[in-house]
Amino acid sequence: MRRTLALVVLVLLVAGLPLPALAWQATPAASPAAGAPLPLDGERLATFEAYVAEMMAVLDVPGASIAVVQNGGVAYAQGFGVREIGRAKPVTADTLFMVGSVTKSFSSLLTATLVDAGELEWETPVADLLPGFAVADPALTTRLSVADAFCACTGVPRRDLELVFGFDDLTPEEMIASIAGFPLVAPLGEAFGYSNQVYAAGGYAAAIAAGAAPGDLLAGYRHALQQRVLGPIGMGRSALTLDEVFAAGDYALPHGAGLDGVVRPLSPLRDQRFADTVAPAGSLWSSAREMAAYLQTQLAGGVAPDGSRVVSAENLGRTWAPRAVVDGTEGAPPVIADAAQHYGMGWVTGEYAGRRLLSHSGSTLGFVSEVAFLPDDGLGIAILTNGSPGAGFFAYAVQFELLDLLFGRDSGLDPVLAGAVEAGEAEREALQGALEPVDPAAVAPFLGRYASAALGEVELTLVDGEVVLDAGEVRTALWPLPGDPGRFVAADAPMAGASATVLLGRGEGDRPEVVLEGSSTAGEGEATYVFRPIDGGGAAATPAA
Q1: Can you spell out the DSSP letters for 178-210?
Q2: 26/331 Cα distance (integer angstroms)
Q3: Residues 465 and 519 in one domain
Q4: Do residues 482 and 365 both lie within one domain?
Q5: Is the pTM of this model over 0.85?
Q6: Does residue 393 share a domain with residue 364?
Q7: In which domain, by residue range, is 456 found?
Q8: What is the C-alpha separation between 1 and 213, in angstroms, rounded?
Q9: In this predicted model, what pLDDT tens digit does every residue of 126-182 receive, in sequence order?
Q10: How far is residue 495's CA from residue 259's CA, in Å, rounded to a whole number?
Q11: Can you give the pLDDT at residue 7?
């Protein structure tokens, strides 16, 4: 629905991109939180639930499941809305959602249990465990440790399009091999840089230490996480495969919106398998109720709700410790900037009203999640949603509404969010209104099949007057951008509104080529992918009917 809302998902930088400047005005600073948080009950509970319902309506969020943990117990667990627009099945506290990058903290926790057991050390080089792992600098390859892989500070740039395009043919082993071809953009430890590939490599290295076969990393990681983390915590319904999700029955479907602003279910659900390649970085499904158990374990210093110790407090604390200074929060309201100061190992670290705050968001193709807790106050929240471009906005709004309610504060965030909503909607409407119709004669020379070394094959066709880019796993109509001949923007979810454009142009020998330009790591600029003709592609192929 709203381009700006998609960017606000990045506030805590789990998506690794800078926060756009928001039109907020300074208000008198809220007083520091004093004393213990108030209980979520009575009028506060009624206010919280009313706020959730209102924000879901404003931001077109189809369904959400929320759990609050307080003083060692589950203070609240409730579902809102529906699992799929157009169907009556309600979301419950047990409905499964994909949690995306929230998976990262599970992988660092898994690694912490292995350190406890003496099966590896935090400083064990990834290359000692993973055959074929390398980065562009041979010297860094030999010393980059498992802990480094989790720090978002390796200097390896973000390359998410390489996970989404062609995921059917990309194995974890091939993904790991591809890292060596990514240029380093900063020395180790000197800049925040979010890389799903490197984080996943760290998780797979931990799986090897736990006994995974080098040629079957995905199965080995799933087994290790189930045996050492999910099972001991009591997260028996949380899943790492679609077969497990389907067997559970109670699961949400993802949603998104194209440039027309209409929120729809995304299909097929199998597209979520793109995350399997980087499973330690983002493939977990869970429910609000089971995420509550996870929060209880974190808040109890590694002790599960049943009283059994899952991980030592010392090594759990290592995952919380700040590593990289987070940048990209310029222009953010103070409450947002304060919350996102550093990146640890699968956790964004900061503060709320002077109190220690840890959090992480997750975003896949149509699912958005947020988990946050105050370790010194015994308070945490998990928010799971089945998408729409407003869902990331919703998750942060609900998180800070809870904290403000329980500490009797006003962070002044709601007016900022409202302004961003209006700005985003105006931006979308302006773009949609300025788009020009496709000129069939102009695009005819570019129709056909193309290939990129990094993203695989795509096909361009003309269908009912629209240019369609079909990569097999990803398909979208392309709409011409006004005043920029040959440049297009994706019109359909889940690519619509992404920071990427497609340029139809001419390359070597005046041959047609398709250039995809997308944003990458903050400060690095754009990642550019060139697709060149194959099998007659770009030779004025016959338009589709």
Answers
A1: HGGGSPP-S-TTSS----HHHHHHHHHHHHHHT
A2: 11
A3: yes
A4: no
A5: yes
A6: yes
A7: 440-533
A8: 44
A9: 999 998 899 999 999 999 999 999 999 999 999 988 888 878 778 999 999 999 999
A10: 10
A11: 32
